[in-house]
Amino acid sequence: MKLLTREALLSFRRAPLLSVLSVTTIAFSLFTVGLFGLVAVNLRQALKGLEERVEIVAFTLRGTPAETIALATQDIAAFPEVKDVSFVSEEEALRRARAELVEFRDAYRDIQVNPLPASIEVRMKEGYNDAATVERVAQRLRGFGFIEDVRFGREWVQKLDHLRNITGVVGLVIGLAFAAVAVVIIGVTIRLTILQRAREISIMRLVGATNWFVRGPFLLEGALKGLLGGLLSLVLCYAGYILFRDNSGGTLSGLVFFGPEQMVLIIIFGVLLGLGGSLVSVGRHLRHV
Amino acid sequence: MIRFSNVYKAYPNGAMALKDVTFHVSKGEFVFLTGHSGAGKSTIMKLLYAEQRPSAGEVRVSGYNVSSLSPDEVPRLRRRLGIVFQDFRLLEDRTAEENIAFALEVTGARTDTIAARVMRVLTQVGLSAKSRAYPRELSGGEQQRVAIARALVNDPAILLADEPTGNLDERATRGVFQLLRDINAGGTVVVMATHDLDLVRQTVYRTIEMRDGALVYDSDVDEAAAEAQ
What we know:
The complex is a heterodimer.
Chain A: H1 2-14, H2 16-53, E1 55-60, H3 66-77, E2 82-88, H4 90-100, H5 105-110, E3 119-124, H6 131-142, E4 147-151, H7 154-196, H8 198-206, H9 211-246, H10 260-285
Antiparallel strand pairs in A: 1-3, 1-4, 2-3
Chain B: E1 2-10, E2 16-25, E3 30-34, H1 41-48, E4 56-61, E5 64-65, H2 73-78, E6 81-85, H3 96-105, H4 111-124, H5 140-152, E7 158-162, H6 170-185, E8 189-193, H7 197-202, E9 206-211, E10 214-218, H8 219-228
Parallel strand pairs in B: 3-8, 3-9, 6-7, 7-8
Antiparallel strand pairs in B: 1-2, 1-4, 4-5, 9-10
């Protein structure tokens, strides 16, 4: 094991340029994947903010007794899809309208009779904001006799759904493409190392070194380069993140970076890429040495 | 120790490298393998250290059946062999002793025994004074001695030498050949492929001659037949 590590590390010293090259290519591949990941993470964050605002508004008939509404509210709150339910009385609706619609403040001040209906606002639990579920809950709300009308941003919810799906698919495709490129690049660099050390490998084989003994240093080398590449890509991603955030003039000040689990995942991904690239290369080229 | 039984070897391009080759080598023997280049000497060598497999027939080396050797068994067979080539195959960036130690390290020898074992074989080949020299600082004959020392360090049962004197002048050739004879005298089987017929004629060792992939002369068999007549 000691020898294995020594041989793996030796390749960095013997071919510093090649090693730096492979680490940076891994880092740049992962950096691109990472940048996309950051976009995805932030998009998801933004979507979550939007999703939380997705609600169903059920307008009640004028004159519905408060007890009926209180009972119904309890019922609705018990729906598995529902996060919380709040009742907005007619007065509350008017107060909100006055506060939010400043342009009409004068008009609202002068009116004698409150034209706004009371409503029940329903917020969905996380993961239940898709169009079909929202529609189902809305349908159930319509079943209450005192509900006059149910509104929800159906199209908007559908678009949100769509956007999220596209984000996921595009992310996956680009991520896989870059992963493939990274594997090829690592494979090539390991291949160069193998060719560079062909003599050594052939001697190892002749004197009876086991296959794993011959392969071990290359696999370790690939994994190590993947690890370094992963770390470097995180540094690059962080630099990019800071650059974006601080030069956005404040509009992107809410940008988030990867959490610890995601960072560990990127590093593991780097190690796997390095290992994968060297496995492919070792499998293909070591036989011919 | 070595048994070739009706061995054929065809290459993918259809060329027949070996045709129905049968011979066997017993414990303690020294065997010359002669013939022109392309006659099949190197193919026999490659079959012996399981670099290639026979297309038909059976090759047995030191108890291993090369025809049906699993990938895991190849290294185990090679640890029982010492292999020496015309071009020495030393690592240029390591000293003589490091080159020999390398063979022990990569086969998992105990670290604390390596230095002593390296010194023992370097002494055996007469190079203990040059243990710290790099290959480029050694003559061809000395480099081949280092290669032989490396082949010996795992105490092989069989030493395979493929044209070991091909790159050496006459004096170095005599020295290396004498070393191989000494090794054989210690009980190790030596198979030496060569086209240096002078060397072959000087000695009484068994000679197997190859021509176009076929075994055309085996001094053991043919002399026995001649005596029988």
